[in-house]
Design brief:
Strand content: under 5%
Number of helices: 6
Distance between the termini: 38 Å
Number of domains: 1
Number of strands: 0
Order of helices and strands: HHHHHH
Shape: globular
Length: about 100
C-alpha cells in the first residue's frame, strides 16, 4: 500500500472510531434545539472524502471536519461579529462536554 493510500485508509478508520463523538454532539445539540450546530456536525459526519480530510486536519476527523463545516456554515448564513463568536463558543462547549 502506497503512502497516500495508507493515510486515506487511516483517516477513514479514524472517522469510524470517532463516530460516537459526532453522534453525541448531534444528540446534545438536538436536545438543546441548536439547529446550526446540528447542521455543522451532521455535515461533517456525512463528509466521505477522506483524501480531503487529510488536507483539513491530518490528526482528527472530528476536530478538523467540524471546524471546516463551522466556517462553511458561518459563511453561508453570512454570520458576522457576535453571531460568529457565539456559534464558535457553542460548538466549543459541546466539544468540551465530550472531554468531561
Amino acid at each position: 500500500m502506497q503512502g497516500v493510500e495508507y493515510m486515506i485508509k487511516r483517516a477513514e478508520y479514524r472517522k469510524i472510531k470517532e463516530a460516537h463523538l459526532f453522534e453525541k454532539v448531534i444528540q446534545w445539540a438536538k436536545e438543546d434545539d441548536d439547529t446550526l450546530v446540528v447542521d455543522i456536525v451532521e455535515r461533517a459526519f456525512a463528509d466521505d472524502d477522506a483524501e480531503r480530510w487529510l488536507t483539513i486536519h491530518p490528526t482528527s476527523s472530528f476536530s478538523g471536519l467540524t471546524l471546516f463545516y463551522l466556517e462553511k456554515v458561518m459563511d453561508e448564513k453570512e454570520l458576522i461579529g457576535n453571531e460568529r463568536r457565539l456559534l464558535i463558543k457553542r460548538l466549543s462547549e459541546y466539544s468540551k462536554r465530550l472531554l468531561g
